[in-house]
Design goal:
four-stranded antiparallel beta sheet; 23% helix; alpha+beta; 2 helices
């Protein structure tokens, strides 16, 4: 099993979610995160002092999948996320074990 993680600008997520549904993905965990940018994203003022913010808002999508679907899933995310402006990152990590708590299924049956 693999965990496919994508960190994307929020405006890209609806297209990616549609593509994931078309691919047959049944579950996605979405988390609000901040991504470091080398250039300042915006300037803010706090108590009269300006400061530059290098953290951009992003959404992180975590998708648990079977090994043979991971490559296709990355391709789907990349294709749907590449439309318009902005970027993102996708990576794949191995997963040793999965347990579905409600049904107590383990391994690929729990995905």
């Amino acid at each position: 099993m693999k965990l496919v993680t994508a960190v994307l600008p929020p405006h890209r997520v609806p297209d990616v979610m549609k593509a994931l549904q078309s691919f047959g993905v049944r579950g996605v965990t979405v988390t609000e995160v901040r991504a470091y940018e080398s250039r300042p994203v915006r300037v803010e003022v706090y108590r009269g002092s300006e400061y530059r913010v290098n953290l951009a808002p992003r959404l992180r999508l975590d998708i648990l999948t079977l090994d043979f679907d991971a490559t296709d899933l990355v391709r789907v995310i990349r294709a749907a996320g590449a439309r318009g402006t902005g970027g993102g990152t996708v990576w794949v990590t191995p997963v040793e074990e999965v347990v579905r708590i409600r049904t107590r299924e383990r391994g690929p049956d729990a995905v």
